[in-house]
Amino acid sequence: MKVLHIELGKHLYGGAKQVTFIMQGLQDDFAVENILLATRGSVIAEEMKQRGFRVIEITAKGDLDIGLLWRIKKVIKQVQADIVHVHSRRGADVWGGLAAKLAGVPAVISRRVDNPESRWVTKHKYGLYQKVITISDGIRDVLISQGASEEQVECVRSSVAKDATSECNAEAFKERFNLPQNALVIGVVAQLIERKGHAYLLQVLPELRKEFPDIKVLFFGKGKYQGNLEQKIDALGLQETVQFTGFCDDMPALFGCIDLLVHPALMEGLGVSLLQASQQAVPIVASAVGGIPEAVEDGHNGLLVAPGDSRALQKAITHLLEDNSLRIAMGENGKQLMRNKFSVEQMVKGNYQIYVEVLG
């Protein structure tokens, strides 16, 4: 079986990282031949070339780049793929599906976000694909509510690398981020975009700091919303409490040094950072939206609150920060949940079975 994977994201964030897991697992476990079609100069292109995979790079300018249709079709014909798997949006979701259809090759698409689309879009865009693979049941429910058929949409959950667990080097961690030895560290691991909800945490930090004067918050990630967040931090006098770290390539190794992960997102397909945190035994406070309740079981490996409810967020954070034994227990529960529900092997097998089903 020869699979052409299309991932046009420039960075190796959560979704793109899942593509590397899938390609490696398909090769190792099922002897599938994998080819990656990526944006020229992207991080995932370099990563997969270093691993020995065949990578084809093209120019991709987004949804309005109609030339993508012909560039993708040319590659599909060139590599003689048995099936096309579109992993990203950035124009690939429409032009990739059309290209596969024109090339006469069956295609599937992964959907990682839970924002609803119109019935017209659902019908015509996803009608290009034999299967739509969602990374959570929450996303699957959204698609079906917009008119997609239950037979077309299948859930295969994202995963975390099985070898990602590492011990925290607390001294090196605190030195790297200039933290005092007694710091109580909250991490927010997400792109700096408005829907990730960073602002709701900032709203309640002044009150939290009164009760927990040693609290420090690290915003891991990059994004266009950073300027807005910096203005809020200045207005609230939180310059000594909140730190922007940028994107950290070694994030899996850093999770174990965080006391609590907070993810107050307004929308979320699943949240790979939540899986990584649980794998490292970090308890979580998150919004009950999208696929998050599948990754964070309320009262088991974390606490869930209503999206946009700052007071509920403050209450949940307070509850966990003041009870160290509860944080430890929820952390251990999270490790077990990851082993049982979110393994790489399960994700790879799930995708492979869909390919087999589509190819008959």
Automatic annotation (TrEMBL):
SUPFAM superfamilies: UDP-Glycosyltransferase/glycogen phosphorylase
Domain Glycosyltransferase subfamily 4-like N-terminal: 52-156
Sequence ranges assigned to domain Glycosyl transferase family in this UniProt record: 171-336
Superkingdom in the source lineage: Bacteria
InterPro entries tied to this protein: Glyco_trans_1, Glyco_trans_4-like_N
Coiled coil: none
Name of the protein in question: Glycosyltransferase
Taxon lineage: Bacteria, Pseudomonadati, Pseudomonadota, Gammaproteobacteria, Thiotrichales
